[in-house]
Specification:
Layout lengths: L4 H12 L6 E5 L11 H15 L16 E7 L6 E5 L7 E9 L5 E7 L1 E5 L2 H9 L17 E7 L4 E2 L10 E2 H12 L6 H4 L2 E2 L2 E2 L2 H7 L3 E2 L12 E2 L2 E2 L5 E3 L8 H9 L22 H9 L18 H9 L24 E7 L4 H7 L35
Helix pairs in contact: 2-4, 6-7
The structure holds zinc ion (ZN).
Length: 396
């Protein structure tokens, strides 16, 4: 008979460390061109937010300004550019606020993310909460976690998007895939100090990622994406630098391992859905993927993520039969005129981190981290997205 002590210890731990899904709250206030005018586009955006948030189990402290504790949330205006500030924004616990909008981004950019800034004054405790949400060291070379209040994401107004729950047609870029990718940046992938401190030799050295990949994970030229073509369980990872039209990408175990490495508590088991072709439904098409990969090293058929394609995957799919997962809800959008697009397009991230350093040192607003990304065939020149913003007003 096993000792009950470890069990008791686990129970105490679970009581002391309650698990929380993270609510990624999408805000369309600053979408001045009306990119999100259709319900379908908002449905895909929120589906991506729910999918990612449900995989996270962190607890983020609320930012509740009161008395002399005050702050301004600063972020890159998702549609017009430049710094936007909101005085004394209230951010509920376990919630990250993401302002989204459409913007003309230039030929090869599909989307870009800018992490929010916090300009806080008052008690040291409040300032720390505004900057790190109780996550400990989030700034500098010793950063081991990330606790953002939020971010902004700009989506290209000229790309040919698929806003449908169904898989994209040839030539269309899958909005759900891009939204997932950008939300990954909002949570610190490529944009946090906890990420930067784990990059060496053009590879990501985070322990969970190395264990998942089998080696340090090669990065794109900018150091803030997996190198193009990086795969996890046989499929291209969501956080690769480029996305190809006509395909959907789901979050992979490797993408989640990176989030774990930068401090997020991740529920990896939530990734195993049985939806092998990422169309949002567990059905016969997924069994076909298993059959195609049967007893081969092709892990595209590995539904239960045990690194084998065998009867266990058939059973797993059967257990999840006709489950609706991922982005499949809401109605579709009427088709748009086709727009010529390069075969692949660059997804851009920009980390506006270092706000604590800014606050204390009064130094430059933006770290000016150059994001060079990967060149793709047919893509035009690629500019760093990190713009020098006007110096922000902040109290204290
Ligand atoms: Zn990206």
């Amino acid at each position: 008979m096993r000792s009950s002590l470890p069990v008791l210890g686990l129970v105490v731990f679970l009581i002391a460390q309650p698990c929380h899904a993270i609510t990624i709250q999408i805000d369309y206030t600053y979408d001045t061109p009306g990119f999100f005018a259709t319900q379908a586009s908002r449905d895909r955006m929120s589906a991506a937010a729910v999918t990612l948030g449900d995989l996270l189990e962190d607890h983020l402290d609320a930012i509740s300004p009161t008395g002399t504790d005050s702050w301004s949330a600063g972020f890159f205006h998702p549609s017009q550019g430049g710094l936007q500030t909101i005085p004394n924004l209230v951010v509920p616990e376990d919630t990250v606020i993401v302002y989204v909008g459409g913007r003309s981004l230039g030929g090869s950019k599909l989307a870009e993310t800018n992490v929010g800034l916090a300009f806080a004054s008052g008690s040291p405790e409040f300032q720390e909460t505004a900057n790190s949400r109780g996550q400990g060291v989030t700034v500098g070379a010793g950063a081991s976690d990330f606790g953002p209040w939020g971010a902004s994401i700009s989506f290209s107004t000229t790309a040919s998007w698929n806003f449908e729950a169904a898989l994209p047609a040839a030539g269309q870029y899958d909005f759900y895939s891009a939204a997932l990718h950008e939300l990954g940046h909002a949570l610190g992938f490529g944009t946090s100090d906890a990420w930067v401190t784990r990059v060496a030799n053009q590879a990501f050295q985070g322990a969970d990622s190395v264990a998942e990949f089998g080696a340090p994970v090669p990065l794109s030229a900018g150091g803030d994406h997996w190198a193009s073509g990086t795969t996890s369980f046989g499929s291209q990872a969501a956080m690769n630098a480029t996305i190809v039209s006509g395909l959907r990408r789901a979050l992979s175990p490797l993408d989640l391992a990176a989030l774990s490495d930068i401090g997020w508590q991740v529920d990896v088991s939530g990734l195993s859905t049985g939806d092998l072709n990422f169309d949002g439904l567990v059905d016969i098409s997924d069994l076909v993927k298993v059959a195609d990969a049967w007893l081969t090293p092709n892990l595209q058929g590995d539904a239960n993520h045990d690194r084998r394609v065998d009867i266990g995957d058939v059973t797993f799919i059967a257990e999840n039969w006709l489950n609706v997962v991922g982005p499949r809800q809401g109605s579709g959008l009427s088709s748009q005129p086709a727009v010529p697009e390069p075969s692949a397009i660059v997804l851009v991230a920009c980390g506006l981190v270092g706000s604590l350093a800014f606050y204390h040192r009064g130094a430059g607003f933006c770290r000016k981290r150059r994001v060079t990304g990967a060149r793709v065939p047919g893509a035009k020149h690629f500019e760093p997205c990190c713009q020098v913003l006007p110096r922000a007003d902040h109290k204290g």
